[in-house]
């Protein structure tokens, strides 16, 4: 009996039962990337977009033509206060960040760009705006990628090393990223605990998977508490580090300026960073450094 089709081109095996071994710097048991999604000021608003943004503190979208001033204000908190609380905390712990940044959000807050330059954080392109690019045609998506690269290069002093769409890519995204030629990786997948190579238009392309599990969007989407976020992330760190005796892994913690930037939730991030620092065997790394380490030890297949 023929099994039913479940999508075209999917890889349900990946690294398999015995994943490849990687030696993280310092012999770390785990590579941890902290990814700060910075989208504030680039989200959808009325009247220009014809729709209001929906992912705020309360899942109650305001229908057009009314303008959702409440949700806009939630996003403003992220850019006015939240992002700087997180950046100061990372400085305090001398730990690097990767900013999943929408280009227009950076354009609208030069002080964030200056902080990125000064602290040496890396940027993963998160769209020209925080838009649903799977809804547009290939040419428009390509134009948006180019616009984002040009903008981020200008505001942050260097181009984005990687790319992560809002929520999901289109069927064309990965081909467009490879054709653009300047991306070391993309993070448009949630399917592994390690980077992996894939083939795109006859070329090898690196994927550094992201996560929706260790992600503070659950504060709004699922009613997660700060204590629950700490528990989830600490459990993930400890269990993955325990697996280092088998093969070391990587993990991402996904943050948003408007969510974790709130003081009570920032205290949860502080507890997580304290736990990481106390362990002493976790490599907190920029995403581009994880990609480079993987590529050096596991170069693309010929």
Automatic annotation (TrEMBL):
Location of the NodB homology domain: 69-285
Pfam families referenced in this protein's UniProt entry, alphabetically: Polysacc_deac_1
A molecular function GO annotation: hydrolase activity, acting on carbon-nitrogen (but not peptide) bonds
Species this chain originates from: Streptomyces sulfonofaciens
InterPro entries: Glyco_hydro/deAcase_b/a-brl, NODB_dom
Name of the protein this chain belongs to: Polysaccharide deacetylase
One GO-annotated biological process of the protein: carbohydrate metabolic process
């Amino acid at each position: 009996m023929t099994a039913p089709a479940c999508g075209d081109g999917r890889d349900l095996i990946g690294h398999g039962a015995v994943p490849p071994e990687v030696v993280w710097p310092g012999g770390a048991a785990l590579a941890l990337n902290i990814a700060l999604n910075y989208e504030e000021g680039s989200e959808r608003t009325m009247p220009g977009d014809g729709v209001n943004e929906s992912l705020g503190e309360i899942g109650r979208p305001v229908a057009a033509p009314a303008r959702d001033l409440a949700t806009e204000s939630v996003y403003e908190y992220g850019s006015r206060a939240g992002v700087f609380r997180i950046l100061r905390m990372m400085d305090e712990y001398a730990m690097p960040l990767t900013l999943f940044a929408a280009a227009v959000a950076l354009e609208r807050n030069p002080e964030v760009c200056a902080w990125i330059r000064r602290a040496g954080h890396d940027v993963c392109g998160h769209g020209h705006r925080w838009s649903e690019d799977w809804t547009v045609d290939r040419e428009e998506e390509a134009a948006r990628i180019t616009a984002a690269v040009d903008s981020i290069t200008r505001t942050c002093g260097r181009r984005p090393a990687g790319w992560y769409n809002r929520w999901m890519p289109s069927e064309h995204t990965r081909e467009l990223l490879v054709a653009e030629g300047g991306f070391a990786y993309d993070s448009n997948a949630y399917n592994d605990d390690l980077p992996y190579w894939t083939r795109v238009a006859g070329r090898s392309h690196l994927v550094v998977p992201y996560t929706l599990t260790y992600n503070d969007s659950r504060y709004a989407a699922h009613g997660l508490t700060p204590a629950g976020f700490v528990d989830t992330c600490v459990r993930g760190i400890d269990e993955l580090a325990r697996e280092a005796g088998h093969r070391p892994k990587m993990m991402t913690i996904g943050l948003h300026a408007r969510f974790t930037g709130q003081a009570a939730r920032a205290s949860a991030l502080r507890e997580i960073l304290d736990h990481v620092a106390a362990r002493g065997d976790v490599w907190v790394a920029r995403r581009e450094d994880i990609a480079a380490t993987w590529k050096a030890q596991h170069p693309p297949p010929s």
